[in-house]
Structure formats: C-alpha cells, structure tokens
Target: Energy-coupling factor transporter transmembrane protein EcfT
Amino acid sequence: MAVEMLSYIERKSPVHRLTGVTKLLCFLIWSTVAMLTYDTRVLLFLFLFSVAIFKVSKIKWKEVAFVLLFILVFLLINNLAIYVFSPQEGVKIYGTRHVLLDIGGGRYSLTLEQLFYQFNVTLKYFTVIPAALLFLVTTNPSEFAASLNRIGVSYKIAYAVALALRYIPDIQRDFRNISLSQQARGIDMSRKEKLSKRLKNAASIIIPLILSSLDKIEMISNAMELRGFGKNKKRTWYRARPFQKIDIITLMLFIIMLIVSLYITFYDGNRFYNPF
Model:
C-alpha cells in the first residue's frame, strides 16, 4: 500500500531513536537559524546537512515527493513575485549593480545581485522544508503531543495537534476510497477528461469527504467526552520517552551549530553575506 503523505513512517534509524522533545527542539533551533541568516555559507551548510540527515533517517525522497513538488511550485511563484514587485531588492541589499540583461528600461533589468538574493531565498526553502518534513514523518503523533506538553503547551492543545496529524492519512484514505467508488459509478476523474469537467466531477468527491469527516469528528468528540477528557489539569502519556545519551549529544550539537551560525552571520553587523 502506498505511503500516506505527511504521516508517520516507522524506520530503524538514529533519527527515529530521538525523543519527540529532542526533535522538536532541534527543529526550532534549525528554523531559527534558517530564518535569521542570509549568509550563503551558513545556508549551504544547513542544506547539505539536511540532505545528510535525510539519508541517515532512511526516509526515501519518493515518499515525500508529492509534497516537495507542491512546495517547488509555490517556490517558483514566490520567486516570480519577488522579481515582479521588487526587481532591484538585491541591489539595495548589496550596494552594487551588475546588469546581466537590460529589461524594461532599467527597473526590471536582471542583475547579478538580484539573482544572488533570490538564490539565498530559495536556499532558505530548501533548508527549512526538508527538516520540517523529516520532523513530521519521523515523529509519532502521540509522542509529538507528549513532547509539546513536556515543553509547557497545554495537553488539550497538544492532543488536538496529535489528532490533526493522525487525521491527515485518514482524509487521504477516505478521498481515495470515495474517488474509486465514484469512478466505479462512471464519473471519470482521469486525464482523459477536460480540466473543467474534472473539476466539476471533483465536487462529487469533496462533498462526501466533508460529510464523512464531520461524522468522524463527532464520533471522536463524543468518545473523548465520555472518557472525561479535559477534566484534570494534567495527564500522563503512554508514548512519552525519557532522554537518552543520543538526545543529549544531539541537542548539544545543535546548540553549538546555532551559536556558530549566528556568529558567522552577525560578526560583521550584517546578516547578508556580500560577495560583491
């Protein structure tokens, strides 16, 4: 059976052995560095490091290929929008102007600085997104909820997040089953139909999917209410795990990476690496 998108994928790897708290803290550190820096050297290091972690985790790229493809399309749109609305942003940041192609009488002239700036923006996506995907597919939702509660998040909110993550595969499964049922009734959803017809036929899937989702939500709510969920201020977690040696080493490594990255980024008072 095909792997569900953004669902937990169980593997025997060092990444899976880490506790949910460790992975959450490491992801927060990773995201902080990626958001703060525009230093190309730091971003390239983070990108290569994320590829290495992906390999260690034993998660296959094809298992998250659809999500990556969707993000690449969004990234392309974002880069086009940056160029359309701020085509000289790189020139303002780096203080020089090397024209590669003169377009539109100057404003939309393609400059080396703009390409370098947008290259860094792209690197930011390539740095954060794989790490986020890896965190989602290597962390059990119940353990993730326990991790959130352990760092101070209300267990009600943590449990809601865990339910949402668990529900993603269910929605995909229901969508596939309803789609197959509708196709068996003669509703064509293949590429043979025109796009407008396929979009119209999609309504025959979306409406039953929404109704079945609402029905499941009601069932889960009733079950939680009957079990007295939310009555006490605290709760225990079956999937919670204590820290091990590998967790401490990993956290220390990421803290060192945070300090070194921020030092490299801000040592000259500017978070933009300027090769010009």
About this structure: Residues 101 and 110 are 5 Å apart (CA to CA).
